[in-house]
Amino acid sequence: MAAALPIYEILDAVKSSLAQHNTLIIQAPPGAGKSTVLPFELLHEPWLSGKKILLLEPRRLAARAVAARMAELKNEEVGETIGYRVRFENRIGRSTRIEVVTEGILTRMLQNDNALENVGMILFDEFHERSLHADLALALCREAQQVLREDLRIVIMSATLDGDALAALLHNAPVITSTGRQYPVAVRYFPPDTQLHLSEQTAQAVKKALQDETGDVLVFLPGAGEIKRTQDLLEQTVSAVMIYPLYGDLPHGEQQRALLPDPNGLRKVVLATSIAETSLTIEGIGVVIDSGYARVPRFDPRSGLTRLETVRLSKDAADQRAGRAGRLGPGVCYRLWSEAEQRHLRSHRTPEILEADLAPAMLELCNWGVTGIEQMAWLTPPPSGNRQQALALLQLLGAVNTEGTITAHGRALLQLPTHPRIAQLLLEGKKINAAALAADVAAVLEERDPLPKTEGTSLALRVDVLRRWRDKNRVQADTQALQRIARLATSWRKHLGCNEDNTLFADELAGHLVAAAYPERIAKKQDSGRYKLANGRQAKMADMDPLSDRAWLAIAQLDAGTSEGKIFLAAPLSADDIISTATEKETIAWDYQKGELLARKEKRIGEIVAATAPLKTIPEALYKQLITEVVQREGLRLFDISDDTQQWLLRITSLRAWRSNENWPDVSEVQLLATAAEWLVPFLKNIRRRDDFRKTKLQELLPGLLDWNQQQQLDKLAPATIGVPSGSAIRLQYQPDASAPILAVRLQELFGLTQTPTVNEGRQQVMLHLLSPAMRPMQVTQDLHSFWQNTYPEIRKELRIRYPKHSWPEDPWTAQAIRGVKKRGT
Fold first, then answer.
1. Residue 12 and which of 47, 77, 207, 692 are 20 to 30 A apart at CA?
2. Phi and psi dihedrals of 236, rounded to 5?
3. pTM of the prediction?
């Protein structure tokens, strides 16, 4: 049967191309034999020189299945010529020449041996899925090939990838296409009933397919939840049919049952996630039912959180799914959407590198020693914002320094096959002699929640349920989820070198471990189930949640939300943890809203103030800098500036304009504020509130802006008052634009004065505002002589009538000036 596979049609072309080129792209449809046959056929090529072949698969299930199929074709056990490596599992023997590995395993192999000395060829299978690990592994392999191993062959295999675009990236690598052996698939569209849940629609489609079609049925659903609901519906309504779930979290034995024909010959319905789109051969499938949805991780750089989102399928993924019905013969695909919707689907799936959490990849790149990420051979470069977010997290965890260089702690994190956060948690558990608890907490966080949402958010409760179940006690929980958690916890204990522990533990100890992994999610209670996180965000939980009364939490899982997130899993933190985690910071700032100086010693966890105490002494330089900033921001209105002080400043301003050839200082507010640190702030002592500024007497500080000579000249050149014939000293009003100062005086006090008074050594006449006895303006003039001669005789008539008791002499030139009221006849 293998000899008839389509891959043999292109085998000679593949061998010839690899003899001349170190990079090749193969386009071949599902079932062509590229995964299971091609590695065998290339195993004895001269350029391989006895080295190994690595075959990369995007999923653990596919890696095991492909290795098992290859071993079966060779009549061997897995672990002989063909073996596999996946997370926590290794079936490799001394004679193994073909290793089927997941993409993360390849990255680890590259980090341990940059040149991959024992490897002659790497085949990237199902590359069209564009997983982050595949993109990263290809970039690292290309760099190793270009710098260290020109003889290393890289083969990229896919059914739907744009081969020309990939070839251009890989320096015009040759592309070989196989026509494949795909039987026709009839596609039938079934527009969804919006009144029904997706599981109900799918169950109806399955029953119709069982009635109208032949062969086993493969159903694609977004996730385990939809699979379980659909399975329940079908098991209640169909008979003589076996229903098998198929998703990544299932135990290996259950996965195998879904892949093989039913042992009793019954018809089979396989309910699968996207895991069944490629690589896996599920025997007997003649019908595919596609819900049209997939669940993918989406990373939000603003919140630093990754969420699983249910999204519409792309056209290439829909075609890939439909093709599963045509591997053994003509098939049928039911699509639970309309033809119109089909036309509007995206042509290709979004590469994971654009939407994923890049922290694991960035840690790998830092360990690789990459300095110019943009220069690497990326099919899709990782977004800059996500990269910076990832580096910030790695710095927070102490995995890289501020220059982006990996630390010894970062290398220790890389030794654990998991996200850097979980690795941090595990290492912290080992450090504080709580390794067994760390293994349990890590397993709970990495696997599906065994408890319903109604059980609240307590992570410690989940660990306690796990331990009671493991200790053979009865618990109300999802036992399948507990089985997966227990298996993973066992694997972590092997890494940490500790034994199983099912004893009671302090909830706060779990919180300590979570805080180590998620330091930016340490949270302080605000009110009614709302918490402020160390990263400044807000999150909430139900008021009735058992943890809602705890003052401090370490949050392990929450969604990004819009205005505030929702907490899903958390553990309480002890006061000792808060104190040890907090950093001490002296805060010296001005609260502009309250108008007061804040001087305190704070214990902070990110944006959260855990405790405060007054700061008794403030460094003088820092105090002066702060007060200067306050003065410059709020201006001279802070001070109680009297009219005399304001006029003093305007006198200087006038002289600066009138006598521009002299060095009179600029005393405008802009300049005074700009130089406040020099002439003002040194004299501002013990300022604590805005009102304290008003106690400062500026009129005592301002003269210091003048030199001794200017101080002597000021009253002479720009006097504050001018004496008039009545004996009064009248205040002059100097102007901001340095125009003529105003002398507002009652007309009667100027009798006998023939010329307009002047300042500035007679160069500047004042502007006379002549007032009535009632101090009302009568005339504005700078020519007093003309006023007496021409205007006074006319207004005298009016004045005599309006103020009859006052003396209004005909001859103002010689009349006696009057201060106050001098009645007629006296």
1. 77
2. -85, -20
3. 0.73
